[in-house]
Amino acid sequence: MSPISASQVNLIAVSKTQPQAAIIELIEQGQLEFGENKVQEAQEKWTQICLQYPSIKLHLIGSLQTNKVKEALQVFDVIETIDRPSLVDKIAKEIASSNNIVCKEFFIQVNIGEEAQKGGVMPNDLPDLLAYIETNAPNIKITGLMCVPPADKPPAPYFALLNKLANEAGIKNLSMGMSGDYIEAIRLGATHIRVGTALFGERK
Ligand SMILES: *Cc1c(COP(=O)(O)O)cnc(C)c1O
Fold it and tell me: Does this model's pTM top 0.85?
């Protein structure tokens, strides 16, 4: 494993449930990269802020329904949660037919702990999903993998597994690590950490 310095890690401030005032306070301190988990909440909170601060980079880190794809592509710069062919098809179709798309970067979410209730492609199915995208949606360039490890287990083995999957697929970005485990994630190769409560305090 090559050593990684903190300056190479992108800090995504996870602002879900946080009010605009708290977000703007962080922007004024220089934070430009943010994450939200719901399309509608992001539209309501961010459309105005993004006009005011054009260099904001907004990540979708929650699951995406196909009927929200159009809106998601208009408000988010990065969609981190591609996980199934039907979603790939819908995104590819919207990109081909719309002219007000903001989104340029796409990550695949991996269900790294193979948990029934979680989104993400199963680790074993990742190569097939990548091949599907390459064949059927060449306008979607996958540049990263994202995961949320099981809440009740030590995260390190899951971070290591995501790193291995990315290496095997030749994918360079790894979005992993939250308030409780971002140091471990950076140690295991995270290029993007998603931190909410450690920046904003507890969510209401
Ligand atoms: C809420 C959330 C985070 C941030 O969690 P914290 O523990 O508050 O840092 C990170 N990633 C995802 C996918 C989330 O939904």
Answer: yes
> Distance (Å, rounded) from C-alpha 28 to C-alpha 107?
28
Buried b (16+ CB within 10 A) or exposed e, 150-160: eeeeebeebbb
Q: Which atom of ligand 1 is nearest to the CA of 80?
A: 13
Question: Which residue owns the Cα nearest ligand 1 atom 7?
Answer: 179
Query: Phi-psi bin for 177: left (phi > 0), alpha (psi -120 to 50), beta?
Result: left
DSSP 3-state assignment of 194?
strand
* Residue 196 in contact with ligand 1 by CB distance below 6 A: yes
Query: Atom of ligand 1 at shortest distance to CA of 148?
Result: 13
List, for residues 2-24, the tens digit of each pLDDT value: 555 556 899 999 999 999 999 99
User: Mean pLDDT throughout 32-49?
Assistant: 97
Contact (Cβ atoms closer than 8 angstroms) between residue 30 and residue 55: no
